[in-house]
């Protein structure tokens, strides 16, 4: 197993010790600094010629406790829209757009105008500290209609192509920053160990070695050596630290979720080898600028199972391991209201998380309360000012590195590249390289343009389904949600004789080959957990379509458009070919490129494919490993 070799090369970052308690609207071309005339620097922190550390120290020395706490606060843009003056009065350090939180005009200029308007409010504060704006660009600038939408991470893991992942994130960074946000909550470097998890598709795979290989995406976002000040790079976020893909099924206490936000039950050695390893690389090799702790908890086996601790409260892991032993010098951003899951009243939640090492708090609709509470905790001596200074210093460091003090407003010069042909060509290449050929009897694939092709299945002509969750809205949705090419359209671009029937009700007579496109509908996070209204089984409609088409047409090809493996064991004998198409995003033509042999099949499974749902969790290296398709499986065809 690759992970074993990787772990052997890593330093022992976790000692076998008990956990410690947590105590102790402007013009787009505005390019001049917002604080001083060119060449005149009223204070050292406004001098771009000084080292970042000196600028941070100078600015910290000028700030009041209220101003410092404001920098530690992130609100949802929707919470301040009715009264943007809150940005100024609360000294807010950051805003975000959650999934589906968009301007009224969901266009590049609409985004830039919105972010610049908020920025103007931040620059009206006494010290004119610019705002940091974050957004979930997890497979492209996916909140923006018209952006290039790439395959989700699990598909990218199937490509085994780190250079392609880097190019994808370079494009995502460029498209995102051209619309205002300078910070992305990506990439997810979780290691998915159970396909029943609703976030499976956000992981690059089940082997930490593969996840580490694909962390080139951090360099794509941030540039080599954290080149953050230009228009082509953004601050990246490695998430969700750590163990979120390794939680026990049934351990979640979040609403109806079954596994997401649950408990990772493990020992420190296994945790270091499986769950922590990608963060060592993210910090030490790529210098990731921010890290988002997970909603999940860890329950160490060494001290007896039954006392899990939320990651947002985990001083041992956040401070002792991540910041001190691994050497992370960026800042920690909490997940959406994550501290609300810590036991105790709100003051206890705030105090516990700050003292554990959290630096910025995503309190989307409770920013004023957070600031009042933290200030009271500081004044009472329950949160040391040194801890606040450390947190704010880390946040200011990122803002200086991004060049926000010199150029606070959106550089829109790359807006013309958003959704461009060249960007979509990279996404189409990613789709093609991600396709995994699981079965190919009788050389069913590649198809020939001369064949009469019968296409069935609801996912053949639904771009919303093929894009999945985190597309325009948090959960995503079916239908024509984004511009792009469906799989059906891609097939029709390659063959003149195509019949399409979503439910396979049209006559099949005269067809040479059937292509049935099955799979999942969009979901995100714990909403997609198995047991929360979801299953790994194919729908009854999908099973019926496969049965009818494969029973009536001599050659039958099945494509699975889904965020994780689905159970096809009993149907596999009926298929001549089976392709895992994942969630390809906006460029469905990439699927047809390999179906018709314009590109070869080269993808390999980044996760193990189970025989049944009951086999989960199943991962490479397990005892009695007997999957339907093993990790790394993938047949090849010639171009």
Would you give an account of this structure?
- The protein has 639 residues and is α/β, with parallel strands linked by helices.
- The chain is 31% helix and 11% strand.
- It contains 20 helices and 17 strands.
- Strands 12-17-16-15-13-14 form a six-stranded mixed beta sheet.
- Strand 8 (297-300) and strand 9 (309-310) form a beta hairpin.
- The protein is globular and about 80 Å long.
- The chain starts with a helix and ends in a 44-residue tail after the last helix.
Q: TL;DR of this structure?
A:
The chain has about 650 residues and is α/β, with parallel strands linked by helices. About 30% of the residues lie in helices and about 10% in strands. A hairpin with an 8-residue loop joins strand 8 and strand 9.
């Amino acid at each position: 197993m690759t992970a074993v070799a990787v772990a052997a090369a890593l330093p022992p970052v976790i000692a076998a010790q008990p956990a410690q308690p947590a105590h102790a609207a402007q013009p787009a071309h505005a390019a001049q600094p917002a604080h001083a005339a060119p060449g005149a620097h009223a204070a050292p922190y406004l001098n771009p010629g000084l080292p970042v550390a000196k600028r941070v120290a100078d600015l910290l020395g000028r700030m009041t406790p209220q101003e410092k706490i404001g920098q530690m606060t992130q609100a949802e843009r929707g919470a301040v829209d009715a009264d943007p003056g809150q940005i100024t009065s609360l000294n807010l350090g950051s805003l975000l757009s959650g999934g589906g939180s968009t301007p009224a005009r969901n266009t590049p200029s609409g985004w830039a105008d919105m972010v610049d308007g908020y920025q103007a409010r931040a620059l009206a504060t006494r010290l004119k500290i610019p705002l940091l704006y974050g957004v979930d660009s997890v497979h492209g600038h996916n909140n923006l209609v018209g952006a290039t939408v790439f395959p989700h991470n699990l598909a990218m893991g199937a490509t085994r192509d780190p250079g392609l992942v880097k190019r994808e994130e370079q494009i995502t960074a460029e498209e995102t920053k051209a619309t205002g946000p300078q910070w992305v909550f990506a990439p997810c470097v979780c290691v998915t160990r159970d396909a029943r998890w609703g976030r499976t598709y956000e992981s690059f795979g089940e082997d930490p070695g593969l996840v580490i290989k694909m962390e080139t995406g951090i360099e794509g976002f941030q540039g080599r050596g954290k080149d953050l000040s230009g228009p082509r790079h953004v601050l990246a976020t490695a998430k969700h630290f750590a163990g979120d893909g390794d939680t026990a099924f049934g351990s979640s206490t979040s609403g109806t979720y079954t596994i997401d936000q649950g408990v990772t039950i493990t020992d420190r050695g296994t945790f270091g080898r499986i769950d922590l390893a990608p963060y060592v690389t993210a910090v030490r090799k790529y210098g990731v600028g921010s890290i988002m702790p997970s909603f999940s908890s860890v329950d160490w086996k060494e001290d007896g199972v039954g006392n899990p601790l939320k990651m947002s409260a985990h001083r041992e892991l956040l401070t002792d391991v991540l910041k001190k032993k691994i050497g992370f010098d960026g800042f920690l951003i909490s997940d959406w209201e994550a501290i609300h899951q810590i036991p105790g009243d709100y003051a206890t939640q705030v105090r516990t998380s700050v003292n554990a090492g959290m630096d910025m708090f995503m309190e989307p609709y409770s920013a004023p309360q957070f600031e009042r509470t933290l200030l009271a905790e500081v004044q009472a001596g329950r949160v040391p000012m040194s801890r606040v200074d450390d947190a704010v210093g880390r946040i200011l460091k990122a803002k200086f590195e991004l060049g926000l003090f010199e150029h606070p407003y959106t550089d829109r010069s790359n807006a013309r590249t958003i959704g461009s042909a060249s960007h979509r060509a990279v996404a189409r290449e990613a789709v093609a390289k991600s396709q995994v050929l699981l079965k190919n009897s009788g050389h069913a694939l590649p198809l020939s343009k001369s064949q009469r092709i019968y296409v069935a299945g609801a996912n053949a002509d639904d771009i919303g389904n093929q894009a999945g969750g985190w597309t325009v809205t948090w959960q995503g949705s079916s239908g024509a949600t984004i511009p792009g090419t469906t799989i059906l359209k891609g097939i029709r671009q390659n063959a003149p004789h195509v019949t399409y029937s979503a439910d396979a009700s049209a006559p099949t007579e005269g067809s040479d080959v059937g292509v049935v496109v099955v799979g999942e509908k969009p979901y995100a996070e714990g909403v997609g957990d198995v047991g929360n209204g979801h299953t790994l089984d194919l729908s009854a409609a999908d099973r019926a379509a496969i049965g009818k088409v494969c029973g009536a047409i001599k050659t039958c090809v099945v494509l699975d458009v889904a965020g994780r493996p689905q159970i096809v064991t009993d149907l596999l004998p009926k298929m001549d070919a089976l392709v895992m198409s994942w969630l390809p995003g906006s460029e469905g033509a990439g699927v047809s490129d390999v179906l018709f042999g314009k590109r070869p099949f080269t993808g390999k499974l980044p996760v193990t494919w189970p025989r049944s749902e009951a086999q989960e969790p199943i991962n490479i290296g397990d005892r009695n490993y007997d999957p339907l398709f093993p990790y790394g499986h993938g047949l090849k065809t010639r171009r």
